[in-house]
Design brief:
alpha+beta; 3 helices
Length: 115
C-alpha cells in the first residue's frame, strides 16, 4: 500500500463509527460528546441554546425565553421533560454524529457542540 493509501486508512480509522454508519450514538457516546456541553441550533429561524447537565437537569434558551427540566437516558437516546413553555412535557430523541462538532437529533435538528 502506498503512503497516501495508508494515510487514508488511518484517517478513516479515526472517524467515530457513528459518523460512518449513521447509527444512533450510544449512552456512552452521548455522555462523552453532548452531556455538559453548550449546544447551539436553529429551529424555525430562531437560535436555540441547550445544555444537558451531568446532574440530570436541562436548560434551553430561545431569544428571551428560557425553559428548564430534566433528562434521563432511555435506550440509545435521552428523554427530557420540560416543566413549562412550548416544549412542555416529555420528549425522547436520539443523536447521530455528522462529523466534527455537529450532530443530528431524531427530530431533524442539526446541533453544534461548542468547544
Amino acid at each position: 500500500m502506498e503512503k497516501s493509501g495508508v494515510l487514508v486508512a488511518v484517517l478513516v480509522a479515526l472517524i467515530p463509527l457513528s459518523a460512518m454508519s449513521g447509527e444512533a450514538l450510544t449512552q456512552e457516546q452521548i455522555s462523552r460528546e453532548i452531556i455538559g456541553k453548550d449546544i447551539t441550533a436553529k429551529r424555525k429561524g430562531l437560535n436555540v441554546r441547550l445544555k444537558y447537565l451531568p446532574d440530570g437537569n436541562v436548560t434551553m434558551k430561545v431569544m428571551l425565553m428560557s425553559q428548564s427540566g430534566t433528562w434521563e437516558y432511555e435506550g440509545d437516546g435521552i428523554c427530557m421533560t420540560m416543566t413549562s413553555g412550548p416544549r412542555k412535557g416529555r420528549n425522547c430523541i436520539t443523536f447521530t454524529h455528522l462529523g466534527g462538532s455537529k450532530f443530528l437529533n431524531s427530530e431533524g435538528l442539526t446541533m453544534t457542540v461548542q468547544n
